[in-house]
């Protein structure tokens, strides 16, 4: 399946870099490249892409336009995936991005833009309703844990917290198994135990509970 993508980036060099990179990928149809929030809004309304890849800061305000756009898109076009690119390590922006729903959302640092495999993973994941969080942001949140009061995460074992951190980056069970050199059964056991300890609704689907767990992970590390 070819994924229709709109890119929003005010820097001409980065926007052209993204255009050239995506032009080499047979899984993408880049339908528009824009430089401001008004242009992005118009392009999405006109073209209804599958995914938007957007900078956090764009004209007219150069503040948090990409996050505000994702928040609005969750209400107006909930099926469109969003990959937000940030120049700086800002966990607060990631929290805002996922606050309206983690499904179909990715947050990456701009240094990942040149990594075709990483960008492809993010675009394909949000298209399928998945969640991707840059590993460096996860690392910052983990480090922040020691400075905060006890959270629901205190109920987890060190291995369960490690597995949850990898879930937060969008890795599948198989990928976690390979990363930690565990059996598939062990990974499933850790995830099941984690979901139970976080008191997530057992009647929800496994996918939805994983998303909820990621949100608990993020909010607990920012409290």
Automatic annotation (TrEMBL):
<dbReference type="Pfam" id="PF00196">
    <property type="entry name" value="GerE"/>
</dbReference>
<dbReference type="GO" id="GO:0006355">
    <property type="term" value="P:regulation of DNA-templated transcription"/>
</dbReference>
<keyword id="KW-0805">Transcription regulation</keyword>
<dbReference type="InterPro" id="IPR058245">
    <property type="entry name" value="NreC/VraR/RcsB-like_REC"/>
</dbReference>
<keyword id="KW-0597">Phosphoprotein</keyword>
<dbReference type="InterPro" id="IPR000792">
    <property type="entry name" value="Tscrpt_reg_LuxR_C"/>
</dbReference>
<dbReference type="InterPro" id="IPR039420">
    <property type="entry name" value="WalR-like"/>
</dbReference>
<protein>
    <submittedName>
        <fullName>DNA-binding NarL/FixJ family response regulator</fullName>
    </submittedName>
</protein>
<feature type="modified residue" description="4-aspartylphosphate">
    <location>
        <position position="55"/>
    </location>
</feature>
<dbReference type="GO" id="GO:0000160">
    <property type="term" value="P:phosphorelay signal transduction system"/>
</dbReference>
<feature type="domain" description="Response regulatory">
    <location>
        <begin position="4"/>
        <end position="123"/>
    </location>
</feature>
<keyword id="KW-0238">DNA-binding</keyword>
<dbReference type="Pfam" id="PF00072">
    <property type="entry name" value="Response_reg"/>
</dbReference>
<feature type="domain" description="HTH luxR-type">
    <location>
        <begin position="149"/>
        <end position="221"/>
    </location>
</feature>
<dbReference type="InterPro" id="IPR016032">
    <property type="entry name" value="Sig_transdc_resp-reg_C-effctor"/>
</dbReference>
<dbReference type="InterPro" id="IPR011006">
    <property type="entry name" value="CheY-like_superfamily"/>
</dbReference>
<keyword id="KW-0804">Transcription</keyword>
<dbReference type="GO" id="GO:0003677">
    <property type="term" value="F:DNA binding"/>
</dbReference>
<dbReference type="InterPro" id="IPR001789">
    <property type="entry name" value="Sig_transdc_resp-reg_receiver"/>
</dbReference>
